[in-house]
Here is the input.
Amino acid sequence: MDVKKRNVTQNDVAREAGVTRSMVSYVISGNTDRSVAPETKQHILDAIEKLGYRPNKAAQALQQGDVAFAAKNIGVVICNEEVFRRPFYSEILAGIHSGAHEAHYHVRFIRFFDELRNPVLFNNLIHQEEIGGIILVSTDQSIKSRDDFAVIERIKERIPLIVCVEWQCEGLSSVLFDRQNTAKKATEYLFRCGYTDIAYVGENDERVEGVEQVLQLHGLKSNPKEFYKAQAFNMEGGYEAMKSIYENKDIAVPRSIICGSDEVAIGLLHYLNEKNIAVPQEIAVVSIDNIEMSAYTNPPLTTMNVQKTAMGKRAVEMIVNKTAGKDDDAVSISLPASIIQRKSC
Here is the structure.
């Protein structure tokens, strides 16, 4: 019988490739316990493509058990749809996918946190017969009530391996960058470049504390009311913040600015370019993130490089290596940031 007229099995692939069925199963499973010669692996992959073989997931689950079958599946929960639009988070998600692929794991789903408030969807996705681990990306941005914390607790009860990325949750492991220390490094860089009139535009979080510490150390204006000029989260916010600074006649325009993110800095630069205000000759700009487009702004941004892709990969590694502990065994990994010198400062 022509194999194309019936379901193709691993035995068919083995005959086509001239290997044993166990070798085919080994390659398909992505097992790394033993090595397979590259030419042998390629013969098997060529046979799979030629015959159109598809794994029988029901049979695999029956053979391995549902929990064991799902152990290499990872769920990803993000705060909201903005994550897909923002380059910073896109690089984190790329790191998750790349890390999973390299470890022969699979990203089973990407869902918004709000969706998990639906008990039907929650029960369908959040259990060990569906996923072996879960990564929560900036989920704190969506946690606003006791009910939301209750969702996190239910996830914690059901899934053994959980990693928070870009936020920390009590009792859970996390991977993030040190916002306070990164802002400190950016402020110190400005000071070393000779700037003492330093302002901050961005989110009101640990970054403000980092700027404050350095200004205090050097005896400069260290009250946030004096150096924190505007709250901004994205390009539009950066543009409006810079506009308000220049249009407010009651305050002096600072000689240098630290932006909480590259997106804020890009909006800020757009306003300065519109008004023909020279950077850095009239105002210097340093940012935090180092997203790809920061190298192509006018002028190119001097920024702190945050290891975005590495955060995603490290979260996957913690699941693969089963080091994503909980409660007293929870671990927090903070990846360092370094200055990328360009033309804006």
User: Anything to note?
Assistant: The longest helix spans residues 87-102.
